[in-house]
Write a structure and sequence with these properties.
RNase H type-1 domain-containing protein, RNaseH-like_sf, 218 residues, six-stranded mixed beta sheet, alpha/beta
């Protein structure tokens, strides 16, 4: 499998050079292969305590639970990512949202992990104690629900997220399909040009608000 990924990475680097005039460095190629192999490896692990949400739509959490959706927008040409985070209550009301830029991000896999880490940190600052964290990166969610010590390229991030669990009375990590994570996705996309963190309380950018309303439609 690693050999296949290596060939694929070389083909990708060749196309990027031809079509975009931007060569992919050896460091980036290695990071690309390593992170995607780790993701594939995680997808093949069977975890008995895996939490998987409905793959198609966003759903309101139970009473007194805050649902926290996260996603990442990765900009490869400058090794930057933006985390999109949105917290909603059992009525679907926006309790808080955050767009947080990160620099020196090697690949989308790390970008997603950073988004999850920032989401948990953000909700601690909001003062909520019963949380359901949702994201569309299945491998990240699996790692956070695993009892096996993580040894991948995101192990430090995973361990940091796990260390924050003690800040909550209840915290779960669940996977949701892209359509169920659309609000966080749109927030990360809309904030792609930000150089500093941006926070919203009770409201979000219009493009995100439209998705929030669609999530609540019968």
């Amino acid at each position: 499998m690693k050999l296949v990924l290596t060939y694929w990475s070389l083909w990708y680097a060749r196309n990027q050079l031809i079509h975009e005039g931007s060569p992919l460095s050896m460091h980036k190629s290695i990071a690309f292969i390593r992170s995607y192999y780790a993701e594939l490896e995680a997808l093949n692990n069977s975890l008995s305590n895996q939490l998987v949400a409905h793959p198609g739509v966003w759903s309101t959490p139970a009473a007194n639970i805050i649902k926290l959706n996260f996603d990442a927008h990765f900009i490869s040409i400058i090794n930057k990512s933006v985390s999109g985070i949105i917290a909603r209550n059992s009525l679907g009301q926006i309790m808080g949202a955050c767009a947080y830029p990160h620099t020196s991000v090697a690949d989308p896999f790390i970008a997603e992990a950073k988004a999850c880490e920032m989401a948990v940190s953000f909700v601690i600052d909001l003062g909520f104690h019963q949380i359901q964290v949702e994201g569309d990166s299945l491998s990240i969610i699996k790692k956070l629900n695993s009892t096996i010590t993580d040894k991948s390229v995101i192990s430090l991030i995973v361990n940091d997220i796990i260390s924050m669990r003690d800040s909550f009375e209840l915290i779960t990590f669940a996977h949701v399909g892209r359509l169920g994570n659309e609000a966080a996705h749109e927030l990360a996309q809309a904030a792609a040009q930000l150089d500093l963190p941006r926070y919203w309380f009770g409201t979000v950018p219009e493009v995100v608000e439209r998705v929030v309303q669609q999530d609540l439609a019968p």
